[in-house]
From TrEMBL:
PANTHER family cross-referenced by the UniProt entry: PUTATIVE (AFU_ORTHOLOGUE AFUA_8G07350)-RELATED (PTHR36440:SF1)
Species per Swiss-Prot/TrEMBL record: Haloglomus irregulare
Extent of the signal sequence: none
Region feature (Disordered): 150-184
Annotated InterPro entries: Cupin_2, QDO-like, RmlC-like_jellyroll, RmlC_Cupin_sf
Descriptive protein name: Cupin type-2 domain-containing protein
Regions of compositional bias (Basic and acidic residues) in chain numbering: 162-178
Domain Cupin type-2: 42-101
Length: 184
């Protein structure tokens, strides 16, 4: 029987701020509060934020844009989202996003896992400001070292930004072709 029998509420005053790569992130609802069914992370993104192309092998990811705008990239497509828009990315399919401007998103995974990745890789911070610089080499190393432990596979470099510039952080990843529909 599940331990998740009451609503799981994430309160702003109770959330720890993490510098997760080049974001200011808050795990609003950890997986432990939902018997690992879902986790919810609020992420404040700097303009140009672009994680590497990656796959969540065992989780669907939902991104809801609260403020600003992002472009969501898949293996075959790129779609722009603005405040109020949402996308659900299926497990096993490669994806990433580029923050077209400073933005705020809610990212959730079902089952849970992404919130735990943020706390494992991120550094707690007292600063309530969005980072203005790319992540450090140490932070990138943490992502590379721990992604697999959290069901995330890095499959390529970050997507190019809208204006043709390529994000320079988190590059150097192994780049490989992934068959469409591959994954669990």
């Amino acid at each position: 029987m599940s331990d998740f029998t009451e609503p799981a509420i994430g309160r702003r005053a109770e959330a720890t701020a993490y510098r997760f790569l080049d974001t200011l992130s808050y795990v609003r609802v950890p997986g432990s509060a939902t018997d690992d069914r879902v986790s919810v992370v609020e992420m404040h993104l700097r303009a140009g934020h672009a994680p590497p192309m990656h796959v969540h092998d065992g989780a669907d990811e939902t991104i809801h844009v609260l403020d600003g705008g992002v472009t969501v990239h898949t293996a075959d497509d790129a779609r722009s989202l603005t405040a109020g828009d949402s996308v659900v990315l299926p497990r096993g399919e490669e994806h990433s996003l580029v923050a077209d401007e400073q933005s705020v998103i809610l990212a959730s995974t079902a089952p849970a896992g992404f919130g735990e990745f943020v706390t494992a890789v991120g550094e707690p911070t007292e600063e309530g400001t969005v980072p203005t610089t790319p992540p450090s080499e140490d932070a990138i190393g943490q992502v590379n070292a721990l992604a697999g432990d959290h069901g995330i596979e890095i499959v390529g470099p970050p997507p190019a930004a809208r204006d043709g510039r390529r994000s320079t952080h988190l590059t150097g990843q192994k780049e490989r072709a992934r068959p469409r529909g591959a994954g669990s």
